[in-house]
């Protein structure tokens, strides 16, 4: 790992700063929206804008990179992000914020694609797995650190918008000044949805549902916190707990998944998440209880996402993994766009509990569907499964392809597992 950090530290440092900036603006907007009196439904549209921009970016940025090159795209998108972060404080109106969130989602998708292809190309077969794991960990750490910075200024002022803009601007310095050449780049085409569903119905349905869960959990957390009257410190702790839970539980859940039927593990984790949401609604716990619940929700949502990707790839030939990953992430993006909006609507109809009701219903649906699918196909044995890989919902198809390819190389599934059953 030391050798990996020695060669990739400029990129990892840049990604850390980027994620701190991105993590700050996501939480800050929900808090500032409450201060400005913007209704919950409008704020949910604002939060959904990021996921719409990210989805569009996944479709268009690869061609843009092929036409003008990594460095130009990287620098241009980074400049746009830095400017957009400042503009949030100029005129706090939900329509303008939605447009800016859409722009930031689009730009961050391009930044991730560029950074991930650079990291993949600069790694060797011996250290690629460690490099990509370090990259995913740094992403989660950056968002956790971002929550602490929210407490250094007044969310009703300008400072907390300036800090992420500066951090994003600084993030590109170590990356662009590194000596690493730009990699060769190829656009990844999506597998048809029919073929993808035929290979793994649970993968397709589960990824769609988890898109809704994670975008609501992360995107609407600060809006919900502001609505129930939590302080900035309490909201930042709750959001930090979501990502810290995902970071801590990835490893033990991944270890179990390599030795256990992944469908049943998805069922158990989604049931735990649904039960946690139900307990919050019924018990209305205090701040400590909410933080623990946030850690539990993040601790199941992040690993379920990675589990579904790994499970789908257990039924694919290695040559199909790239196109399948692109297709699954497109499905995830569609689910993500609706998550904040539906959650915001429910919060407007039934109050703050709508935040938990929405996630609880989706997790209950995933629990039921995973249980049904477990009766429709014979379980794989551990030697028929590929290895679990740490993958965050922020990852683009290029990182997902590289991570899963590395995992499958470490523990390739048998030909019997590769054929749909």
UniProtKB/TrEMBL annotation:
Entry keyword set: Membrane, Transmembrane, Transmembrane helix
Domain Major facilitator superfamily (MFS) profile: from-to ranges: 199-421
Keyword Transmembrane set for record: yes
Segments traversing the membrane: 40-61, 73-90, 102-120, 132-150, 156-178, 199-220, 232-253, 265-283, 289-311, 323-343, 355-372
InterPro entries: MFS, MFS_dom, MFS_trans_sf, MFS_YcaD-like
One Pfam family cited in the UniProt record for this chain: MFS_1
Keyword presence, Flavoprotein: no
Name the UniProt record assigns to this protein: MFS transporter
Taxonomic classification: Bacteria, Pseudomonadati, Pseudomonadota, Alphaproteobacteria, Rhodobacterales
């Amino acid at each position: 790992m030391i050798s990996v950090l020695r060669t990739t530290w400029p990129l990892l440092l840049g990604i850390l700063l980027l994620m701190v900036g991105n993590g700050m603006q996501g939480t800050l907007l929900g808090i500032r929206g409450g201060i400005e009196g913007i209704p919950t439904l409008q704020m949910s549209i604002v939060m959904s804008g990021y996921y719409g921009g990210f989805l569009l970016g996944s479709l268009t940025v690869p061609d843009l990179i092929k036409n003008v090159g990594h460095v130009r795209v990287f620098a241009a998108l980074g400049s746009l992000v830095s400017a957009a972060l400042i503009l949030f404080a100029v005129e706090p109106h939900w329509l303008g914020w939605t447009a800016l969130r859409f722009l930031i989602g689009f730009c961050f998708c391009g930044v991730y694609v560029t950074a991930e292809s650079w990291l993949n190309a600069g790694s060797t077969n011996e250290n690629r797995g460690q490099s990509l794991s370090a990259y995913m960990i740094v992403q989660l750490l950056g968002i956790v650190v971002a929550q602490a910075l929210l407490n250094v200024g007044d969310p009703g002022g300008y400072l907390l918008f300036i800090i992420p803009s500066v951090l994003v601007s600084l993030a590109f310095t170590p990356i662009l000044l590194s000596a690493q050449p730009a990699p060769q780049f190829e656009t990844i085409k999506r597998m048809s949805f029919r073929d993808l569903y035929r290979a793994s119905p649970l993968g397709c349905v589960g990824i769609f549902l988890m898109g809704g869960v994670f975008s609501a959990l992360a995107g609407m957390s600060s809006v919900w916190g502001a609505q129930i009257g939590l302080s900035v410190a309490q909201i930042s702790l709750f959001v930090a707990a979501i990502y810290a839970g995902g970071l801590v539980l990835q490893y033990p859940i991944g270890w179990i998944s390599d030795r256990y039927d992944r469908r049943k593990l998805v069922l158990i984790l989604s049931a735990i998440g649904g039960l946690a949401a139900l307990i919050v609604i019924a018990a209305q716990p205090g701040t400590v209880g909410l933080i623990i619940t946030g850690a539990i929700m993040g601790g199941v949502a992040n690993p379920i996402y990675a589990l579904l990707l790994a499970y789908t790839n257990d039924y694919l030939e290695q040559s199909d993994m790239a196109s399948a990953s692109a297709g699954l992430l497109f499905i995830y993006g569609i689910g993500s766009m609706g998550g904040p909006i539906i959650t915001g609507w429910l919060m407007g109809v039934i109050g703050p509990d709508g935040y938990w009701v929405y996630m609880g219903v989706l997790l209950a649906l995933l629990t039921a569907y995973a249980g049904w699918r477990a009766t429709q196909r014979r379980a794989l044995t551990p030697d028929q499964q590929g290895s679990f890989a740490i993958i965050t919902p922020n990852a683009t198809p290029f990182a997902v392809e590289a991570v899963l390819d590395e995992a499958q190389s470490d523990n390739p599934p048998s030909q019997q597992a590769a054929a749909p059953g």
